[in-house]
Write a structure and sequence with these properties.
mainly alpha, Helicase, Ruva Protein, domain 3, 4 helices, globular
Length: 85
């Protein structure tokens, strides 16, 4: 059964950017999320790990263990860091 919400589960500025981040997160099998983001988004290890820590996520977790809220926090942190650059 699929439940349809009245409002989206996450408030996003850009659904496209959110899915770019999620696709990058799952870009490599059996990898920790910081490695996937490094490879999928061409980030340095330091930047990927700091972005995850700033979002309250252990960089050594695997992408499939992240909740929708985790992905939302990571998206917001990525957007914040992108706006600063």
């Amino acid at each position: 059964r699929i439940d349809v919400f009245d409002r989206p589960a996450l408030e996003l500025d850009s659904v496209e950017d959110f899915f770019v981040l999620v696709r990058a997160g799952f870009s490599a099998r059996r990898k920790q999320v910081h490695n996937c983001l490094q490879q999928g988004m061409d980030l340095s290890r330091e930047v990927a790990e700091q972005m995850l820590r700033d979002a309250g996520i252990d960089p050594k977790r695997r992408p499939q263990t992240l909740s929708l809220d985790d992905w939302g926090r990571l998206y917001r942190e990525h957007s914040r860091q992108s706006a600063v650059e």
